[in-house]
Amino acid sequence: MQTSPYTPGEVADSVPGRATQLAFYEEKAQRIQNLSEFIARVRVDYAARGVGKTSLLREAERIFARHGIAAIWVTANQDENLLLTVLDELRKLVPTSKAADVLSYIDSATLTLDAGVVRGAVTVKPKKKDAVTAAASSSKAFIAAFENVTRVLLDEDRKGLVILIDEIQSADKPSLRAIAYAWQEMKNSPSRVPAGLFSVGLPGSQDHINSAVTFSERFDFSELFGLDDGGVVTALAEPAHNLGASWERTALQMAVSEARGYAYKVQLIGDEAWKTAGYPDPGSSITVEHLTEAMPQVEVHMETLFRSRWRSASPKQRELLSTIAELGGRDVKREDIAARLGVTTQAISMARDGLLRRGIIDANRHGRVSFTVPGFTEWILAQS
Ligand SMILES: Nc1ncnc2c1ncn2[C@@H]1O[C@H](COP(=O)(O)OP(=O)(O)OP(=O)(O)O)[C@@H](O)[C@H]1O
Ligand SMILES: [Mg+2]
Question: How far is it, in rounded angstroms, from Cα 174 to Cα 22?
Fold first, then answer.
């Protein structure tokens, strides 16, 4: 009896099916390590919930570590000033022997920011000009702290420093502005240090960042899709293989068609099949029968997810969700939704944007929308 190697709801141990993204991070790590480059564009990998964003960024963290690059990890949160959190993390990186000199830069940046936060709280709606000035002074102070910490790390034989931000769609706008400003300034600075900034977030990240910063072309947005069949097979077969167990080919085929590329569901399938197969010992395998027995339990977990999405939707959004489901749930035209509801496309745009931002639906280039999680169509139809 061996415990399950699958990770439903937890950061994945490895990220099969992400070769393109990993190659990107590998290349950036090499540039930082070997060429002491400052990576000027801020990366944003975006996708709906449960597609594997956090797991990807954690894997990137391991890649940077292998290249001797220090990293700080922050999870953005609506109620916090992101830049202050970053400064706190920078503080933790400073070795005690060097503390006094460098900490003074961090302290002074923290003070500048705190003042900015207080000002922001008093002025209900800061004028655009004020916002730009605040971003400029926050970012100058931040640059001094960041560059000095990085130089200390270089002295300690580290190759550079990267900032990794999860849930960037929740970052406060003043911090985003200041960070964007800082990245722009550092790129042009003769004293620039080997560094980079990489983030992941929901599909709403793009609009959120665009509305916060004026030169958002500095950001490199890249959509993260579901896993392809090969990725799903590896995600299921490899952890079993590492424990001396295996999946029968037909069971893998069935799992691929059940998971439809959704990473969270892949892990649920692996985990539940592992249980019905009796926690396989080395030499045992998982069969179609085991998987068939496991699927109802997988669906129970998926239903929990569907229910919470449904509950968090407004009445207008629910109306939209039902209509999208009735129209098939995939590549549904905006005009068809409006026609079915007997309204103009304009009338549904707010509800649609809300669902897009939260990654419950996604839209392709032609504005057609699809559900992001397999099975949601069937679940909604079964409710009504
Ligand atoms: N490449 C992958 N292959 C297989 N499973 C994966 C992969 N990436 C992530 N997972 C699994 O998918 C689930 C969701 O992963 P993760 O938490 O990284 O996604 P997320 O996009 O950050 O989700 P959220 O938006 O809820 O934060 C987890 O159970 C994780 O173990
Ligand atoms: Mg996540």
Answer: 30
Q: Which residues contact 190 (CB under 8 A, 6 or more apart)?
A: none
pTM of the predicted protein model: 0.91
Q: Where in the chain is the domain with CATH 1.10.8?
A: 229-309
12 lines ligand 1 (CB under 6 A): yes
Fold of the CATH domain 314-383: Arc Repressor Mutant, subunit A (1.10.10)
Residue nearest to atom 30 of ligand 1 (CA): 12
Fold of 19-223: Rossmann fold (3.40.50)
Dump pLDDT digits (tens) for 32-44: 999 999 999 999 9
Confirm if 17 and 231 have CB atoms less than 8 A apart.
Answer: yes
CATH of domain 229-309: 1.10.8
The structure tokens listed for 286 are 């998982």
Q: Tell which one of 15, 55, 232, 266 to mutate to probe ligand 1, the residue whose CB is within 8 A of the most ligand atoms.
A: 55
Which residue has a Cα nearest atom 19 of ligand 1?
A: 52
Distance, in Å, from the CA atom of 147 to the CA atom of 192, rounded to the nearest integer, reads 7
Instruction: Find out whether the beta carbon of 308 lies less than 6 Å from any atom of ligand 1.
Output: no
